[in-house]
TrEMBL record:
Enzyme class: hydrolase
GO aspect biological process, one term: D-amino acid catabolic process
EC number: 3.1.1.96, 3.1.1.-
Catalytic reaction annotation: a D-aminoacyl-tRNA + H2O = a tRNA + a D-alpha-amino acid + H(+); glycyl-tRNA(Ala) + H2O = tRNA(Ala) + glycine + H(+)
Annotated Pfam families: Tyr_Deacylase (PF02580)
The protein's name: D-aminoacyl-tRNA deacylase
Gene Ontology molecular function, alphabetical: D-tyrosyl-tRNA(Tyr) deacylase activity; Gly-tRNA(Ala) deacylase activity; Ser(Gly)-tRNA(Ala) hydrolase activity; tRNA binding
Species the sequence originates in: Paenibacillus baekrokdamisoli
Amino acid sequence: MERDLEEMRVVVQRSKEAAVTVNGELIGSIDQGLVLLVGITHEDTEADVRWMSDKIAGLRIFEDDSGKMNNSILDAGGAILSVSQFTLYGDCRKGRRPNFMAAARPEQAEVLYMQFNKALRTAGLQVATGQFGAMMEVSLINWGPVTLILDSKG
């Protein structure tokens, strides 16, 4: 089954700590929590943003006292490092150079990315971010490792 490229996409990585720097300056950092690489496409709407933020806030990928993944980031008291990542829409099916036509234009993507981060904060989460449109260095200690890919219309 071919995957639909026209949906909001977030790579979720559970981390012990993470940070983003731009030109050697620390822009955002967290201790235990989630690193989110956030991709926005042309057809994404506020409904996709709400669905994705609700999904992430409630995603049970932190261990409970029994060692089972039963706790959400809210239960675990973790924070989020959210990083805009248009390259999630790099279509590499043809040729050797990725095609980024499915990525939303920056003016659309930035608005939805900001709404997404606001929705996470409204859910009660501490959210640090990178710098939209900048060349960023993201470092993290992936905990588990646990890495998931969420699609809003999947």
